[in-house]
Design goal:
EC number: 3.1.1.29
Catalytic activity: an N-acyl-L-alpha-aminoacyl-tRNA + H2O = an N-acyl-L-amino acid + a tRNA + H(+)
Subunit structure: Monomer.
Protein name: Peptidyl-tRNA hydrolase
Strand order of the largest sheet: 2-3-4-1-5-7-6
GO molecular function: peptidyl-tRNA hydrolase activity; tRNA binding
Distance between the termini: 25 Å
Number of domains: 1
CATH superfamily: Peptidyl-tRNA hydrolase
Radius of gyration: 15 Å
CATH class: Alpha Beta
Length: 195
């Protein structure tokens, strides 16, 4: 396990119109983590200008918490800029994102793998030149019927989902802290049997 600091990125789209979308659950989790760490996120200068970020400690580890200010499909540029600025390898990157292939309310952890059609992950993999980064995958489930997944992720959570959304955000934040504190395998052993 690296000594860090770790770059923890919560994915979403900028602006209030997207704030409640399923695609923004990564940004919701990042806000929870920033609150726990007492980190105020602000826009930087130069290579950090396209993200809100802040430094602090989480689960006993040094972290840089960040949310790109770009649209989802351009997340890679700000992530690359932050990795370079803080002299971090992509292996110390943790990306928190929505995941269609996991049921709503479930959280999964992994390193590497494909992007599953997720434009934010695709952009990050392209900009960093690797898929070998850590992921906190927050389940949003598949769209009902024949609804286009691209439309589904850009819709707000349903009224029923919103009743347990806060709990899901807390669980994903807990899983992120476990990942930082104990490493991937130990965190998976704790988080995966729950859901």
């Amino acid at each position: 396990m690296s000594e860090g600091p770790f770059l923890v990125v919560g994915l979403g789209n900028p602006g209030p119109g997207y704030a409640g979308n399923r695609h923004n659950v990564g940004a919701m989790v990042l806000a929870e983590l920033a609150s726990r760490a007492g980190v105020r996120l602000s826009a930087g200068k130069g290579p950090r200008a396209r993200a809100l970020s802040g430094e602090g400690r989480l689960a006993g580890r040094r972290v840089v918490l960040a949310q790109p200010l770009t649209y989802m499909n351009e997340s890679g540029g700000p992530v690359r800029g932050l990795l370079d600025y803080h002299h971090l390898p992509a292996t110390d990157l943790v990306v928190v994102h929505d995941e269609l292939d996991i049921p709503f309310e479930a959280v999964r952890l992994k390193r590497g793998g494909g992007e599953g059609g997720h434009n934010g992950l695709r952009s990050i993999s392209r900009s960093t030149g690797t898929r070998d980064y850590l992921r906190v995958r927050v389940g949003i489930g598949r769209p009902p019927g024949r609804q286009d997944p691209a439309d589904f992720v850009l819709k707000d959570f349903s009224a029923t989902e919103r009743k347990t959304l806060d709990l899901l955000v807390v669980e994903a934040a807990d899983a992120t802290e476990l990942l930082l504190e104990r490493g991937l395998e130990a965190a998976q052993n704790t988080v995966h049997p729950r859901s």
